[in-house]
Amino acid sequence: MDIRTSATARLTDAQRIDWLRLIRSDNVGPRTFRSLINHFGSARAALDRLPNLAQRGGASRVGRICTQAEAEREIENSRRMGVALLAPGEYGYPPRLALIDDAPPLLGVRGVLNVQTQPMIGIVGSRNASGAGLKFAQTIARDLGNAGFAIASGLARGIDQAAHRITLDTGTVAVLAGGHDKIYPPEHEDLLLDIIERGSGAISEMPLGHGPRARDFPRRNRLISGVALGVVIVEAAHRSGSLITARFANEQGREVFAVPGSPLDPRAAGTNDLIKQGATLVTEAADVLNAVQPIMGRPVELPIAESDDQPLDDEPHAGERERVIGLLGPSPIGIDDLIRMTDVSPAVVRTVLLELELAGRLERHGGGMVCLL
Fold first, then answer.
1. Is the pLDDT of residue 118 over 60?
2. Is the predicted pLDDT of residue 313 greater than 70, yes or no?
3. Are 116 and 264 found together in one domain?
4. Last residue of some domain: 248, 264, 296?
C-alpha cells in the first residue's frame, strides 16, 4: 500500500483517525510514516508494532503514541475551525506537494479548497526587505496572479506579506509553520483572515495549538517549494531562510528563480549567489512563465513506488544490526553507502534505520542522508 496512491479515494473516518494517531506519535515523521504504512499495510497495524520497533532500536522507554481520543479531539477541533485534514490524492491536497518524498500524510487545509489545485508559484524573500524588493515582489506576484497562478508564501514579514496582499483576489496560499491557531508573526492574523475570507487558503502540517519553533520554519519552507512549480527568491542574505527554500526546491526538482540585486546590498547577496549557481535570473513575470509553461503541459501523476518504499526485514540479526549502527555517527551518510559498506540487504538496513528513528536516535536529512543523534 503506497500512501500517495491509496488516497485517490477518500479515507474512511476510521482510517483518518488511525493515520492521525500514527503521524502524531513520537518520532514518526512523514518518511517513517510511509515506510510503516507500506510495510505493515495499515496505520492500525503499524501502531501495534511501534513499541516493539522502538525497543529494538534501543529506546529506554517507548515514545508517546497518540490515543484514539486525542485524534478524535483534534479532528473535531479542526472541523470547528474550518480546517480539513486531507491525505495525498484527496481533493484540496495540493497535487504537486503529494509528489515529494516527505509529503505530509495529513495536511490541515483551511479556506477554499480549489485554490490548492491551481498551479502555484512560491515567492519568498527577506523579512527586512528594501522598498525596491517589496515593490518588485508585488509586481511579479500581481502579474503571475493575473496569469492564472496562485501565489504560495510563508506569511512572514517583508516579501512574503507583500506577495500575499497583492494576490488576495487572484489566489494566494499561506504556508504556516505552526498550527492554524498559532499564527506567526501574530500581527499577520488579520492578513490570514483576509486570505481566508477573500477566497484563498492556508495549509499546515502541524496540530492545532502548536506554536512554531525555530526548527519548524525549514519544515514549512519545504512545503512552500513542494506545492509550487517553482520558487522566486526576491531578496535573501547569505544566511537567509529563503535560501533553505531554494535548496528544497532544487532537491524536489522545482524551478528556482532569483531576482538580481546590487552587490552593495547584503539583502541581495544570497540571490546573486543563486544566479551564479545556475538559478534562473528573473526581472519580470514573463521569465517565470516561459520556464514553467512546458512543465504545466505534463499531468501530475502520483508515483507508484519510490526507493524508500522497498520492503523491510521482520527481524534483523544482532550482527547485522551492529554492523549498520557501527557505521553511523554524527556526520550524515547516504543510505546507499550504508547498504554497500555493511554488505547486508537493503531491507535490513532500512529496518535498522526505522528502529533507530522510532527510538529517537536517528535524524534524516535530504538526499537520502542519515546520522545518529
1. yes
2. no
3. yes
4. 296
